[in-house]
Amino acid sequence: MIVVSACIAGCNCRHDGELLLNEKILKLVGEKKAIPLCPEILGGFGVPREPMEIIGGEGEDVLEKKAVIRDRNGNDVTEKVLSGVKEVVLTIKRLNVKYVILKTKSPSCGYGEIFDGTFSGKLKKGNGVLTAALLKEGIKIYTEDNFEELLDEI
């Protein structure tokens, strides 16, 4: 079983309410090889919602309480994100998932690059909170940009 970011499986959970859909990821879900999950929805956020970014670090820093996540209006949404991340991690452990396919750049799911915390569209190196938590658990992470490598492994 694979867990995928729900937004790239066509679920309406992005902050702006826009639909993303990767047909190959949707096919994995349809074949019951993947389960779509969204840490932000599981944390109690609605759709649409204000965009949010990590301020003062990256995902690992949020886990260590050295950085926070704020929405564009300046509201601290760290605890809600952490709550959703915890739910995803628990689900992944329960299902003995070894691989995930995550959405790039997100403060939750971003892998390798995330927005820089200025809400200017600029990117910086780093991982989102869910990604940081999953790396600590030894989960292999792919993104919508490179997941086809995984298809050869499963």
Furnish the topology, listing elements before pairings.
Blueprint: E1 2-5, H1 23-30, E2 34-37, H2 39-42, E3 52-55, H3 59-63, E4 68-71, H4 78-94, E5 99-102, E6 113-115, E7 123-125, H5 129-136, E8 140-143, H6 148-153
Helix pairs in contact: 4-5
Please count the helical segments.
6
The run of helices and strands is EHEHEHEHEEEHEH
Main sheet: strand order: 2-1-5-8
Cα radius of gyration in angstroms: 14 Å
Number of E-type strands: 8
Count structural domains.
1
Shape category: globular
Helix content: 25-40%
Features:
alpha/beta; 4-stranded parallel sheet
What features would you describe in this structure?
The protein has one domain. It contains six helices and eight strands. It is of the alpha/beta class. It has helices at about 25-30, 40, 60-65, 80-95, 130-135, 150-154; strands at about 1-5, 35, 50-55, 70, 100, 115, 125, 140-145. A four-stranded parallel β-sheet has the order 2-1-5-8, sandwiched between helices. It starts with a strand and ends with a helix. The longest helix has 17 residues, at about 80-95. It is about 30% helix and about 20% strand.
Summary?
The chain is an alpha/beta fold and 154 residues long.
